[in-house]
Write a structure and sequence with these properties.
mainly alpha, 7% strand
């Protein structure tokens, strides 16, 4: 099936503004005690009131980003500020590290073991500061960003369960998120620091984690970039690899680095060829690089974020390179994603499917799924197809 770029742009725009964002506006705001509810069933009813810091920050980012990049709607800024004030008051320990989870009232439940709480705090408050112009929000963003830089080589610190001095591995998640985060914060950072961090992260992702033989992106490698023959060392996370590549494309495009764009597109296509389920369609959640049984029991589930990030990567890759393989794969992934994840009878999208593509959990939000991947992907695909329509 062939798609008209303008029609695609309209599909993504209308779904974002008329379906997905209203779902979160209507159901997720805790006007009584602050912040947001993320545990929402299919109809938007709250089924748990715990507040997970990275999802709270992601929602601040989403509504700030919509205000900055789509339209300066006062209600979007109000929702972003509502979350930002709650997080500024309750989100950090006395040393400035961001907790993982709070109860509804903002009391800490889970220690700040996860660097991604700090990553998304920096993203959120940078975007909110850009929207609202609050000096204190800039300070929060920069403090969280410095936390990330300080912790990136030992992201779990004293919460790391690995026995010291045995099998040390580093994760793709850290440099890929740092690359995107640094670009997000480019307006706040000195140009020298911006270039230095972007250079380091692009180099690390495209050298240490990219296997030159298979062209696949490994999830964990030894600190020197070599591979480890163990469960973790053979792990391929297709969604992470593909998402990382559109981060790299975005950076390379700003630098007019055509070679890196082409290499990133190659990796996306390699991962798709490796990880696509030829029997039932969709992308596997985890795979073993050597074809051994993966350690993750959920390896063959089909997850929302993997597929929507793939749509972004393919749309961006096609716009930047015009490669037919990107367009062919885009159409294939589009058909699967819109058929299986979009909910025809309610707002937002399903997150979790079994291998056959049936809905496994009909929740719209939880501990891991919030107001982030779907709206970001819808906005980015809308923008990519608008740009493609203008090129025709």
């Amino acid at each position: 099936m062939n798609y008209d770029f303008q029609e695609l742009a309209k599909l993504y725009k209308d779904t974002l503004l008329d379906n997905v964002i209203p779902f979160w506006e209507q159901n997720s705001i805790d006007w009584e005690q602050g912040g947001y509810f993320t545990c929402l069933d299919r109809a938007g009813k709250v089924y748990d009131t715990d507040k997970f810091i990275w999802l709270q920050n992601r929602q601040v980012w989403t509504f700030s980003m919509l205000y900055n990049r789509v339209e300066q709607r006062s209600e979007w800024l109000k929702i972003a500020g509502h979350g930002a004030s709650f997080l500024a008051e309750h989100g950090r320990d006395p040393q400035g590290n961001w907790y993982f989870a709070l109860d509804r009232a903002g009391q800490p439940l889970v220690q700040p073991y996860n660097i991604f709480s700090d990553c998304f705090a920096a993203m959120a408050f940078s975007q909110y500061a850009l929207a609202d112009g609050e000096p204190w929000a800039k300070e929060v963003a920069l403090q969280a960003y410095q936390n990330v830089l300080r912790r990136k080589d030992d992201p779990k610190g004293r919460y790391n369960k690995t026995y010291p001095g045995t099998r040390s591995l580093k994760s793709l998640a850290v440099p890929m998120i740092l690359a995107n985060l640094t670009l997000e914060m480019s307006w706040l950072l000195p140009s020298e620091e911006l270039d230095r961090v972007l250079d380091l992260t692009v180099q690390e992702v495209m050298t240490d984690f990219l296997d030159p033989q298979s062209g696949l992106m490994y999830e964990n490698v030894v600190p020197d970039g070599s591979q480890s023959d163990c469960f973790e060392g053979r792990s391929i996370n297709p969604g992470h690899g593909i998402e990382a590549m559109w981060f790299i494309m975005d950076i390379a495009n700003r630098r007019q680095d055509r070679d890196t764009i082409d290499r990133a597109v190659d990796v996306v296509l390699n991962i798709l060829n490796f990880a696509w389920d030829d029997r039932y369609g969709g992308l596997y959640y985890f795979m073993d690089a050597d074809g051994h049984p993966p350690q993750q029991l959920e390896w063959n589930q089909k997850l929302w974020w993997v597929h929507v990030e793939t749509l972004v990567a393919l749309a961006m890759g096609y716009r930047l390179t015009g490669r037919a393989a990107c367009w062919d794969w885009y159409q294939k992934v589009h058909e699967y994603t819109w058929k299986h994840f979009a909910d025809p009878n309610g707002g937002e999208w399903f997150g979790y499917l079994d291998r056959q593509g049936e809905v496994l959990l009909d929740l719209k939000g939880g501990k891991w799924k919030g107001c982030f991947h779907v709206p970001r992907a819808l906005l980015m695909c809308w923008q990519e197809f608008e740009a493609l329509a203008k090129q025709v």
